């Protein structure tokens, strides 16, 4: 890889529409980590809603579209474990029958990274001169954890944030009940799951909830807010970019 | 088409039997399993018998002749009357059981049975039995107190297998009859033995 | 087919389960304990990951060579004196069992819990045939008394609290417990069941393993109820799925090491028995006849239709113990014989997808089930496979299809996507003041239970295009 890799930032549809500051935080940390960051203009979504709904044809179309859009860069970096896993794990699976696209899918998969793994493992980067005097508790989002092995990376990175201390979260690896379209298809079950998660987060007695997936964060933060909890939620990369002193999820007016 | 033919016709492949055999054998090479130090087999066995899911009591005696006295002492400690279900195993029948009333088939409310295991297994604290004319199976599952003589201990479960023609039943006992069916709470003596007492023959 | 409740009612059943505070407590007590104990056992095991890779390879090898092994098993079982029967469907399997019972003039059978028996509807078939059934597993005894079906494959009565069990026993046992303790209740069942077990004409069980190179049938229990059901009667009948084959005892040993650890956290179940044929001539006990019914019931089809990996399953229950959905709704909401993640894969194969399409959808795809599976079944992938089939066959609700179609149309046209999402953002932001939305039309599934963070005034892409970089 070149000294200053030319990487594509794929911000994901949720970050694009709900919380752009995660995208800007990603941009800032990647540049700080010595990357030449490009934001491909034609990006929309990784195709996960189709993939998980069983609409295989559309998922394949989205995969081909994104492969063509992103394969020209040294790496593709995504601020979401589940969207990164869609590209890294599932694109090669769903294009397995397609002799022309499978090698391209594999090539893209090999250079697609979730942002925290990329910053920590590939770039060996640490936040420099970032301070946040607060306590935080960490939820391991399922796709990142189980499909990409993201566990220690965010903790190592957060360890370099001055003044920030992590408090243990009971059931930190337990699903929050988001599950993409699951949370609206089976809202009552999803609610029961996130209700328990919110109680565990409250019990951790931290100022902040951190995680690496906006979908899960919206679910947990939305439940915490409905229940009147004072815990504030951020994407990990916001904290790493020194943006942890700004508005948390749901605090943008 | 019979059900047999209908099922097999969809399952029969072309792989030669010797290839299948070789594949199956390769799958058993260097299995992952709890290690048992060959020098510590006896100690590990005793240790495993004590874990909560096995919860057997354990003692060592010099040889077969010590058994009647050992059983007498156990009965006295447990307050069991001297009525013993004793299988027609000549090694047991040859001993001096005076003072005991013996019978060889178990009553539905049998209190205690003495049986001989072929082996103990250190890895799990299991006791390995086989049925034979001298070794009925039912008493070992009916009695409240299961007393087991163990003449030999091996390290791992693989060594429990009996080579050659198999008896009607080959079975491993790894604790007492237990259940967690009500609220996950462990209860001993669900149907069969509530107490397991292992008597290791040292000789 | 067993007498299942109508599948269309999944959401209704799930809602009822969510409103049942007792169920939640009961499920949590048992599954929570199992989860904790499994974690300790797996941690202590040397290289559990390699062990489960090997276990998966053993099962894959068997499934790939199933015809070979079934014939080998049959030959060895017959040589040992057993009679082997084959059944394509649950109906055929039940007919064989009932036929054998009638031939023997059986009035009562002692049954040792088996999921295959539940799958083929054997309890129901025996009742229809007027044959008394003594369920000898404590949990099966409880649900027999309550007239219910199992809610878990290891703890069929996990949905029952001690208070509920106490009431059932007081109503039905001749000499019920005097104290309100779990030990006293278990003792009451012990007294009550013993006579039925010892006087049954037929003993029926499933099989945890069928050992091809010896013809042995292996059962594992913690209560010893399989042995007490199968040794005294004159006739032993085993009903087993054809995927239960292992090449040899050594292979069984490897799987047994993982089975108990995954189910209860123990190194081994208390009683592990290999039965090879009926009693030998001079044996003191054992049945005069041993019959083994090998049941397909959709398994060859699963092997052919992309579900071969599901045939690895050794029925440990770890996937459901660790499933966030199961932990909330329990087993009955699934409506099939098998609940939880493995049930959500199996039930559509057994009962048909049209009636069961909710099961593979009611899952967050969080991957925990595969992580704890001792044979590494890619449960999320198989569940996705059912979702794809459901989509292809038009079984998904119209609204879902329309939503995905609309999203997909825009997602492939970036310019229109930006314009459409910009408009959507505006109207969403108009729905409330402050940073949170409490009510959003069409998103009631979300806002009924949680607040929705108000979306950005301008998307990331729009701001980026305008030159914002930080």
Automatic annotation (TrEMBL), chain A:
GO terms for cellular component: cytosol. It comes from the Bacteria. InterPro entries: Cys_rich_dom. Residues 7-88, 137-220 form the Cysteine-rich domain. Pfam families: CCG (PF02754). GO terms for molecular function: oxidoreductase activity. This is (Fe-S)-binding protein.
Automatic annotation (TrEMBL), chain B:
It comes from the Bacteria. SUPFAM superfamilies: NagB/RpiA/CoA transferase-like (SSF100950). This is LUD domain-containing protein. It holds the Pfam family LUD_dom. InterPro entries: FTHF_cligase-like_sf, LUD_dom, NagB/RpiA_transferase-like. The lineage of its organism: Bacteria, Pseudomonadati, Pseudomonadota, Alphaproteobacteria, Sphingomonadales. Gene3D superfamilies: NagB/RpiA/CoA transferase-like. Residues 115-199 form the LUD domain.
From TrEMBL, chain C:
GO terms for molecular function: 4 iron, 4 sulfur cluster binding. Gene3D superfamilies: Alpha-helical ferredoxin (1.10.1060.10), NagB/RpiA/CoA transferase-like (3.40.50.10420). Pfam families: Fer4_8, LUD_dom, LutB_C. Signal peptide: none annotated. One of its GO terms (biological process) is lactate metabolic process. Residues 397-462 form the Lactate utilization protein B C-terminal domain. Keywords: 4Fe-4S, Electron transport, Iron, Iron-sulfur, Metal-binding, Repeat, Transport. Residues 309-377 form the 4Fe-4S ferredoxin-type domain. The keyword Transit peptide does not apply. The keyword 4Fe-4S applies. It comes from the Bacteria. Residues 70-295 form the LUD domain. This is Lactate utilization protein. It comes from Sphingomonas aracearum.
